[in-house]
Amino acid sequence: MTAAALELRGVEKRFGATEIVRGVDLRVEKGERHALIGPNGAGKSVLFNLISALFPLSCGSIALHGEPITGKRAYEVNRRGLSRSFQVTNLFHRMTVFENVRCALLWPLGHRYSFWRGVGRLADANRRAREVLDEIGLAARADVPAGILSYAEQRALEIGITIAGGADVILLDEPTAGMSRTETEAAVELIRRISRDRTLLIVEHDMSVVFGLADRISVLVYGRIIATGTPAQIRSDVKVREAYLGGAAHA
Amino acid sequence: MKGGAWTWGAYAALLLALPLVFRSGFAMSLFCQAGIVAIFALSYNMLLGQTGLLSFGHAVYYGLGALFTIHALNLAAAGWHLPVTLMPLVGAASGLAFGIVLGYVTTRRAGTTFAMISLGVGEMVAACSLMFPGFFGGEAGISGNRSTGEPFLGITYGPQIQMYYLVAAWLLLSTAAMYALTRTPLGRMANAVRDNPQRAQFVGYDPQWVRFMMVALSGFFAGLAGGLAALNYEIVSAESLSAYTSGLVLLATYLGGIRSFAGPILGAVAVTLMQTVLASFTTAWPFYFGLVFLATVLFVPGGIAGVVHLHKRLWEARLLRRAAPVYARMALPVVVAFASGVVLVEMAYRASAGAPLKLAGWQLDARSSATWIAAVASFAVACLACRWAWRAAQPRWTEVSALIGEAR
User: What is the least distance, in Å, from the CA of B187 to any CA of chain A?
Assistant: First the structure.
């Protein structure tokens, strides 16, 4: 059996006495588009923060392509090919759109902490940054500071930074939150395009997005995964219905 | 890049031509001082403006750079073959070395914690200057003589003009180097870490390491400035690594504008002018210095460079004419408020010192209550007029700012 792109075993997270994530086992196969859904407060964002090493685990282990990443620092996990976006837009707000994307390319292209090479001469980074801007539809806004973009544009840039470095496992945290219908459609199209040949784990509240995009879905309720399966399986799952139709209180 | 080439050409030409226009010894020592503070302030802005690190102990690198250079100078006088021209590199190397050692400690945390640790480290090093007087020179300081070496192409660094060109050359070199640094992967990631350290981690960078490298490199340039100071003043005292010097470079950098690369140079010139020219007019100059700094923080957070930048944009957008009435309205009340403020400060100062006061040809009696009442009244009226004029002018100013996209 080949290693999963991402594998969580017995992952737990406590903040003081409060247990937020209570033993999650999750396997995301290579090339799969996997959605994580669940009611508010189920621990979806916390789980993302655990996988991306923003928070340390209280218990359990996480493996990326079969290699353990438990206890690694966030930048180390990122260097191993896992990239994420944030629910609340998280950009380099005083830098231009182009600079934002180029910063996401420097490490993956091996420029590290170099202070002897001008960024203007890094042909690879500049070319790729322009390609990414084309891909996310922000080429015309390249020289604008990220802080003054419109909300939908900032969300697109958020995705652009996440995918620019060529990470093969992508975590998107509510990429369409707060978007209008048309903006959401454009975003879904973008996500579909960028997740080709990549592994995607996505948290999303918009069910039409989830069911239209995901190959498999996991349902997280009160820090536990109560069901994993194809969209059709999830739709007909009794436990899931209970959780979503007000039964969450005694799930 | 054509505009950039012009700017650099003009900068080099200005440095070259300054002593040809202003020939006095006073001007020459003023330029040397300003040039040294400019390098120091630029190095400080590598932290404050570019990496978002507020340091209260940057003089440590400057002072240690100066100390090592003055010791090197004395070694050269004792027969070692060390060219004076390259001696600022001794300061730079020691600044870098201490930047690496102390930076490792200070950059463990960012934000307020960094500021506090930098203050603590600064105080510790300053305390050393009294504990080890042999190396630090104690209260009297250590003196040297920059013109003891063999003349090279007739250059002895005896005359101040030769010292000026040494400062100018190093200033030009280090400005270019620090500017180039802003356009490297490390320089850009320093900006990224300043804006959002969390996100910097998720594009593969360790924010702590970025900060550490910036502290070390900025120590290099601060040490270089210290080395030049040692050569220029031919004496290094404990003050050069004290909290006072750390504070001064913070003020100069902020006054000049931390968001612009060239801002600290302008700030260095402004502070040097206040320390020398203003100080020759009034002994109350530190008070005015404080006021100017306060006004900068409150009203023009972009500093001098921010003001210049704003007017450049107004000029480019051909909006200067529309903004002009704002200045016309504000001019009189501001000038009167400023003048009566100066009169008040000077009167208070002279009254306590018991000296007679003569301002712009006017004999003022600091002991008569009538003079005081007149000054206070004129100050109060002018301040009210400022408020009133600003209220009337604000809509137009808002309109003009909106047109150039300068959100307030």
Answer: 7
